[in-house]
Design a protein that fits this description.
Number of domains of chain A: 1
Radius of gyration of chain A: 18 Å
Structural class of chain B: mainly alpha
Largest interface: A-B, 118 and 109 residues
Helix content of chain A: 55-70%
Number of helices of chain B: 6
Distance between the termini of chain A: 17 Å
Strand content of chain B: under 5%
Number of strands of chain B: 1
Distance between the termini of chain B: 36 Å
Number of strands of chain A: 1
Shape of chain B: globular
Number of domains of chain B: 1
Order of helices and strands of chain A: EHHHHHHH
Oligomer: heterodimer
Helix content of chain B: over 70%
Number of helices of chain A: 7
Shape of chain A: globular
Strand content of chain A: under 5%
Chain lengths: 153, 140
């Protein structure tokens, strides 16, 4: 394993993570709710889950690029590359997205609900979820490299 | 009204954190998952500071002993849906470089790969919802 020091952005990571943790605390203290994005999205898809706080949280997320994207180039550590649209890439993203949606809802949480909020509460279920999805992610990327002759995604 | 305001502010902060940390960039996330290539540890640090600040929130909520705050997670067992679902999520995460939060934020900026991910993610959530409802009905 080689650490890519040129790509590593410790200060941006810590600052961004702090904002995420602050947001989770605000939602917990202000609304008594867990900032789990898969849960919020999944519930908004159902009639009984369409609570105002969920819509408001989602609206805030949707507006965040408007607020920050103009300064994105200076703020964000890495310039976002836009890949060309081709069938293989679109298929990979659609299948990947479907698995993310299906899996996070079956597991009742994703990187935010289990990874941030769950671990902050020392939930054993969340720890198992995080180890499992990170492990699966590591294996998937490694296999992709292997299958494609060492080429990354 | 007040609660909708705090929730919206929380969403705004959450999205901003994902942008500032670079987690809206799938290349950055895949760089973390790429253990056999050039490994970028950034995502781990995002998790560390996010967990520390959420833990502070959990502590404050516990001290207030506000019944509205679900500080104690209902003790649910580690079951098959948790593990199988997490495996599926991990595979999808590794294929796309997106988990739900960054997908929402990047799609809001019309970043096409995130829009493609959302086009798969929303049906995925809906299908899982149907599974769960069927399970509940057969159990109860």
């Amino acid at each position: 394993m080689d650490i890519a020091w040129s790509l590593f952005t410790p200060w941006h990571s810590l600052a961004g993570g702090a904002l995420i943790g602050l947001a989770a605390s605000l939602l917990l203290l202000g609304n008594g709710q867990i900032a789990g994005i898969s849960g919020i999205l999944g519930n908004l898809l159902t009639r009984e889950g369409r609570a105002p706080w969920r819509l408001a949280f989602l609206a805030g997320m949707v507006l965040s690029p408007l607020l920050l994207w103009p300064v994105m180039v200076e703020v964000a550590p890495a310039t976002v590359q836009t890949p060309d649209i081709d069938t293989q890439t679109v298929a990979r993203l659609l299948v990947g997205g479907f698995l993310v949606g299906l899996g996070t809802r079956l597991a009742n949480g994703c990187t935010s609900g289990h990874g941030v909020c769950g671990l902050a509460r020392f939930s054993l279920r969340s720890l198992v979820a995080v180890i499992t999805f990170m492990g699966a992610g590591f294996v998937t990327v490694a296999l992709w490299r292997l299958i494609n002759g060492g080429v990354a995604l | 009204m007040k609660s909708a305001f705090t929730a919206m502010l929380a969403g705004l902060l959450f999205g901003s954190g994902l942008i500032v940390s670079g987690m809206v960039n799938p290349a950055k996330v895949l760089g973390f998952l790429d253990l056999t290539g050039q490994w970028d540890p950034s995502l781990a640090l995002v998790m560390v500071s996010a967990i520390v600040l959420s833990w502070v929130g959990v502590k404050v909520a516990a001290r207030r002993s506000d019944p509205a705050c679900p500080v104690d997670p209902s003790v649910k067992p580690i079951d098959k849906p948790l593990v199988l679902g997490s495996i599926m999520f991990g595979i999808g995460w590794g294929l796309s470089g997106f988990c739900p939060g960054p997908a929402v934020v990047a799609a809001s900026d019309w970043y096409w790969p995130a829009l493609a991910v959302m086009a798969g993610l929303l049906p995925g959530l809906a299908v899982a919802g149907v599974f769960q409802a069927r399970e509940r009905n057969s159990a109860g």
